[in-house]
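Minutes, project check-in
Item: structure for the 227-residue chain
Input as provided by the requester:
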Amino acid sequence: MSGALYIINPNSSQAVTDGIDAALDPLRAMGREIVCVTLTDGPPGIESQAQADETIAPMLALAARLETEAAGFVIACFGDPGVHALRDRTAKPVLGIQEAAVATAVTLGQRFGIIAILPASIPRHRRSVAAMGVTDRLAGDRALNLGVAALQDRDTTLSRMIETGTALREIDGADVLILGCAGMARYRAPLEAALQIPVVDPCQAAAAMALGRIALAQHHRIEPSHA
């Protein structure tokens, strides 16, 4: 299949998109073009279910414009807004970063912990984990109490992430962590080094999964053969 893997950031923060783009550099060695795009109609950060839902229509419109150039799509918001709607509209691989991160985490440890941005994010995470049927593998979900924009402050964010990750490991019993926001992409390596347990960046997890699907020509919908 020709075309690029498109990573759609549903918020309007170019800084978040740039961080995602840098985090995906190791996967470019696989040979497939990876293009990260920003939904300029989105909010500066997605911090609630309402904001996530409001991005779905413009995100679908953007994906439709990219359809002929795309080999697949990743929706880069931890909450997977519009993933099922986009799967209804294309036979090309469509991955949501939360679903991919959880699927990856359960292959790296027995119990995973999620580092959320805000307490209001946690109910959304828990609903998705329950829908995947892996609630018994969730050790805990703890918030940094930082919004998306505040994640650009490296020192404060990394300090909070180490503190939160330590609590997830030592108190909740997590042996693998998931970064609960696409805006956390650049913190995976230093957090993993600090805590000495696997850390899953959801954008990397989803992109890796999407590239595998593209290479295997494996899709969520099988188009009828006209042979």
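Outcome recorded: The chain has a mean pLDDT of 93.
No further action items on this chain.
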